[in-house]
Amino acid sequence: MRIALPDLVAMDAFGRRIAGKLAPGDVVALTGTLGTGKTTLARAIVAALGHVGEVPSPTYTIIETYDDTRLPLVHADFYRLEDPSEVEELGLDDYREGAVLLAEWPDHAGGFAHEAGCLSIALEKVGDGREAVVTPGTSWQSRWP
Length: 145
Prior knowledge:
Blueprint: E1 2-5, H1 8-19, E2 27-31, H2 38-48, E3 63-66, E4 73-77, H3 86-90, H4 92-96, E5 100-104, E6 118-126, E7 129-136
Parallel strand pairs: 2-5, 2-6, 4-5
Antiparallel strand pairs: 1-7, 3-4, 6-7
Organism: Erythrobacter aureus
GO biological process, one term: tRNA threonylcarbamoyladenosine modification
Protein name: tRNA threonylcarbamoyladenosine biosynthesis protein TsaE
């Protein structure tokens, strides 16, 4: 499914739509080249889940956690990982228990598309806006039209 995201208003609305359907254990896997809006969409999802305040990019910390949201939330940016085995060193599984994972650059962590709760979103630049190519995992089939 392709979704046009012509501006920030549309990106925020898309983030709210995703947030409204999330369940514990889900993964939102965000892919796209630099500057396509992965962090912008992640911030929209975090805000829609109820976080008030700054949502820093986890580019340098790799993992940011949020306990003040409707669901426990882990926002990870795997861009700096050189090998998927580094995920074990980060203790990602400990953070993920009962939480939603927003994963930027998921391929650097070995990918999550094999998980039933993975909503894969590839962001692409289209003119001045963006387009999202959405691929829902099996547990998303009933939640994502």
